[in-house]
Amino acid sequence: MIPAAMKRQLARWRLKDPAFAYLLDTDDSEVVSVDCETTSLNVKEAELLSIGAVKIRGQRILSSESFYLLVKPERRPEAGSVKIHGLRPRDVSDGLSPREAVSQLLAFIGGRPLVGYYLEYDVAVLNKYVRDITGIGLPNRQIEVSGRFYDYKIRQQPDSHIDLRLATLVDELGVPALPRHDALNDAITAGMMYLALKKRGFG
């Protein structure tokens, strides 16, 4: 296994533009909860439609320091996709280009750890653009709330089946149920679940 310090040094060498070196300056004073709405659940096909993110400091979600952007995809969102997130072609027609939107997201998150619900998918989609812009994938530490919830439940009920659906996590952790499939709402929901698990010793 390559040590973390060596991985970061390799990432610095691979950066296309030293202006993005701030991504490698670890900042654990805050975390950022991130969510993306996309045209597909297939990472290879998926294009960004919106990005939501919010900073978390200590036990507080900093709603005044939130991030939300609409993104204009290359292809029109299909009807099945629109039914899920409600973003119609005309809603995203004036959105930012993916490159500009992701560049703004990078400036927002900096070197902070990322939090999310099934974050691996969001990071995989973002990295399609991040690698083109910076030469590297997102180097930020990732905190998966469904994994933390699994650890929390399995300690209570060893060998049991753990339901990891979002509605179950929201209910079990007692966090407010915000309207779903809105990138900022989903980022805030993941942030609330993260804090609820942190209070239970799984942060």
UniProtKB/TrEMBL annotation:
<dbReference type="GO" id="GO:0004527">
    <property type="term" value="F:exonuclease activity"/>
</dbReference>
<protein>
    <submittedName>
        <fullName>3'-5' exonuclease</fullName>
    </submittedName>
</protein>
<keyword id="KW-0378">Hydrolase</keyword>
<keyword id="KW-0540">Nuclease</keyword>
<keyword id="KW-0269">Exonuclease</keyword>
<feature type="domain" description="Exonuclease">
    <location>
        <begin position="30"/>
        <end position="203"/>
    </location>
</feature>
<dbReference type="InterPro" id="IPR013520">
    <property type="entry name" value="Ribonucl_H"/>
</dbReference>
<dbReference type="Pfam" id="PF00929">
    <property type="entry name" value="RNase_T"/>
</dbReference>
<dbReference type="InterPro" id="IPR012337">
    <property type="entry name" value="RNaseH-like_sf"/>
</dbReference>
<dbReference type="InterPro" id="IPR036397">
    <property type="entry name" value="RNaseH_sf"/>
</dbReference>
